[in-house]
Amino acid sequence: MKMSKLYYVLILIGTFSCISEIKDFEAIESNSFLTVEAKLSNQDGPHRVVLSYSSPNIKLNVEDTPITGATVFIIDDKNQTENLVETSNGIYETSSSYKGVIGNTYTLNIKLPNGKQYRSLPEKLYATTPIEKINSKFTVNSNYPLTDVRSVGFDVTLDFNDNPEPNQYYQWTWTHYERVLYCATCRLGYDFALSECSKTPNFTFGQKVPEIINFRCGENCFNIQTNSTYNILSDNLLNGQKVTNIPILRV
């Protein structure tokens, strides 16, 4: 039998385009959008609502613009109303005695100075799902050299059983308290009236050459650190199941 040979030819077709440099770019003003940050729990208040407008264009300063002079209030399903007071630019707070009640439904209402009004969808306040277990594991992060303090540490995770109620969202926060023995390290002495290091010599025992002195705290003092990022989880894909090893922080 005679074998025929088959030849395959690969044809590469390239497309090329030119890149033009953009000069004298100017961002076009667009619409600003309302941003609402709100939080309510069954803990004692005050609870806060933050109102702002997004930046209208891309520029060096893209911070939101606080909205002042708005009317903000919360209504529950028992028709009880809580009026919020503006404590600073764009920040509105409830009274310190106001807190949510588990099982009640709450609606946030906002009226802006330009007359526009907004109302949130009713949100039911559910009981917090208890943490079943907290885990910690010592790990080495190879992204940093061993001389870097970030290279070694403990990864802290937790386990919990998801509430069978659908469409739930979880947010975890943490607070770290570190006892402090010395509240100031000063070269020219400590100004107790201003609670800061002195800017002029303020020696108590007559040394001639300024030296660094550690001043002990007069009472129990702590450095308090909280999480700087949001840690949020939706239960849409795990409703009612046990959830394990959710990362919380690295110590």
Explain what this protein looks like in three dimensions.
Helix content is 0%, strand content 42%. It has no helices and 19 strands. Strands 1, 2, 3, 6 and 7 form a 5-stranded antiparallel sheet that branches. The protein starts with 33 loop residues before the first strand and ends with a strand.
Summarize the model shown.
The protein has strands at residues 34-38, 48-53, 65-66, 71-76, 81-83, 85-88, 91-93, 105-111, 117-119, 123-124, 131-140, 152-161, 169-171, 175-186, 190-191, 196-197, 213-226, 232-234, 242-250. It contains no helices and 19 strands.
Features of this protein?
251 residues; mainly beta; 5-stranded antiparallel sheet; 19 strands; extended
Question: What is the element layout, followed by pairings?
Answer:
Blueprint (H helix, E strand, L loop, with lengths): L33 E5 L9 E6 L11 E2 L4 E6 L4 E3 L1 E4 L2 E3 L11 E7 L5 E3 L3 E2 L6 E10 L11 E10 L7 E3 L3 E12 L3 E2 L4 E2 L15 E14 L5 E3 L7 E9 L1
Antiparallel strand pairs: 1-2, 2-3, 2-7, 4-5, 4-8, 6-7, 8-9, 8-10, 11-12, 12-19, 13-18, 14-17, 15-16
Query: Whole-number average pLDDT?
Result: 84
Which residues form runs of ≥5 with pLDDT under 50? Answer: 1-13
Outline: extended
- Count the strands? 19
